[in-house]
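Narrative of activities, Objective 1.

The group set out to show that a structural description can be obtained from nothing but a protein's sequence at a throughput compatible with the screening campaign. Below is one input-output pair from the validation batch, recorded exactly as produced.
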Amino acid sequence: MYVRNEKRTAQLRAAIKKGPVALPGAINALTGKAVEQAGFEGIYLSGAVLANSVGGVPDIGLMTLSEAQQHAASVANVTTIPIVMDADTGFGASPECVARTVYELENAGVSGIHLEDQEFPKRCGHLAGKTLVPVEEFCEKLQAAKQAKGDPDFLLIARTDARGVSGYDDAVERAHQYLAAGADAIFPEALQGREEFARFAQDVPAILLANMTEFGKTPFLTVSEFGEMGYDIVIFPVTLQRVLMHSAIEVLKEIKSSGTQKAFVDRMQTRQELYDMLGYEVPAPTHDAAAEGDVE
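Output recorded for this entry:
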């Protein structure tokens, strides 16, 4: 099932040229398969989801490169489409740490990453209280990341959180310096309003990523609307986690109060639907097994 990363990175570059590319955020390998089977051209792996769903901790830089690599590999091993991953601040302050991050995640099957210009410990991009590293320091990280790429098509995305810290103009200035340092694309985090997204696309003519997250600064815009403004990639980083966690909490309340999950059966993926997703062909039951009834 595993597809070599070189093929995936080429697929990602080709999809961007046709754009815009929608990347729903997978929670794990199974939801990664669901994203692919739903017909999307790529998968996104969020640092928030890695922290929340895999680690059970807030998104404040607590997860390690090894945990990120294992998470990415589990998704890559059961899918064939490109994966773009959130690499936070590079899992370390030095350019050497960033270079190793690129090496490990590219070898795990990831086709692109984004690095952010926040100081460690980082915060969610749509929260207050962020601080930025100096431009020169982040450019050194980007240069190291570019040199570490094994495949020239591997997409190196520079995320800037400047809009919520030092203002729009600084975000634009930083974006240009990041491109000059070796970034292939820019991710302007927490822009405010349709007009600002459109203005940024005019001010920074490059491959651009838009974050269509919920409960943040970004207004609800469609993938095609982002594309019309000049954005090539649109991520939905935590959407699946939020929907699935809401459903999980509701069924837990039902089991606790009524002692049965029966009211939720029509909202469940069936056993056969799961087997079909996994490509698992169940052998016909023997006479004894049929007599004893279906078992897990």
